[in-house]
Amino acid sequence: MAFAQRLRGLGDGASRIALVTGGDDALAGFPPALMRRAALALRQRGITVFKEACTGIEAGHVRLGNGARLACDAPVMAVGTSAPAWLAGSELALDAKGFIATGATLQSTSHPEVFAAGDVASRVDAPHPRSGVYAVRAGPPLADNLRLAVGGGQLRTYRPQSRSLNLMSCGDGRALAAWGGLSTHGRWVWRWKDHIDRGFIARYRVATDTLSPAAGK
Predict the structure, then answer these.
(1) Structural domain that includes position 188
(2) Is residue 215, in this structure, part of any structural domain at all?
(3) Is residue 145, in this structure, part of any structural domain at all?
(4) Exposed, middle or buried: residue 98 (CB in 10 Å: 0-12, 13-18, 19+)?
(5) C-alpha to C-alpha distance for 130 and 135, rounded to whole angstroms
(6) Are residues 176 and 69 part of one domain?
(7) C-alpha dihedral over 8, 11, 14, 20, to 10 degrees?
(8) CA–CA separation, 101 vs 118, rounded Å?
(9) Phi-psi sector, 118: left (phi>0), alpha (psi -120 to 50), beta
(10) φ, ψ for residue 95 (rounded to 5)?
(11) Structural contact between residues 206 and 215, judged by C-beta atoms closer than 8 angstroms
């Protein structure tokens, strides 16, 4: 949707955007109401959805799982999270998808001296969606337990939240939102998302004066 908005801003009336989903509906796994809102938003922006897998990218087209060839001048790939291949030979306990199996203290279930959180790990005691929200929030508990492990303290348990807020920009000043089974959309949702995103980035912003040559003198 961001690409479609950008092309409209350039006055390009010839280019078309297509979304190849990999076989499922767009946003599969999210609440049905959000999926319907997303499907409508895509249609309103003239984006064609192909519920097929991409089996190959060649000059001038994309090959689909049903054998069709989709004309394509500029393919853009967005892939999901997958476990690093080296984990398979690490001797660490892994889940069914190859991620490090961890428990309530974020320790490996097979090697307690190993801690893991975020996209490389799976909480076998508290399964949850693989998203940045959960990865970011596991950071402080992970840091605390690393300090406690080094200092000989009692490790603390960490339980991820049962649901998270998901916000997706529609590219035109509107956004979609989902919280548990609830969903909504509108310009106010985009402003909400923009406020959250800017606030998050501001926490990690480095003052420019600390990076200047004079700062080191």
Answers:
(1) 2-79+164-197
(2) no
(3) yes
(4) middle
(5) 8
(6) yes
(7) -20
(8) 12
(9) left
(10) -85, -175
(11) no
Asked, for residue 205, whether it belongs to a domain, the answer is no
Structure tokens at 72: 């394509």
Picking from 48, 41, 44, the residue whose alpha carbon sits closest to that of residue 177 is 41
Number of folded domains that form the chain: 2
Q: Is 98 helix (H, G, I), strand (E, B) or coil?
A: coil
Query: What's the burial of 27, exposed, middle or buried (CB within 10 Å: 0-12/13-18/19+)?
Result: buried
pLDDT band at 217 (very low <50, low <70, confident <90, very high): very low
Express each pLDDT in 175-213 by its tens digit: 999 988 888 999 999 999 999 999 988 988 876 555 555
Residues 18 and 64 in one domain: yes
The CATH number of the domain holding residue 117 is 3.50.50.60
Q: Which residue has the tokens 């895509």?
A: 42
206 in a domain, yes or no?
no
- Domain shared by 193 and 141, yes or no: no
Instruction: Give yes or no: residues 143 and 170 share one domain.
Output: no
Question: What does the block give as tokens for 3?
Answer: 């690409």
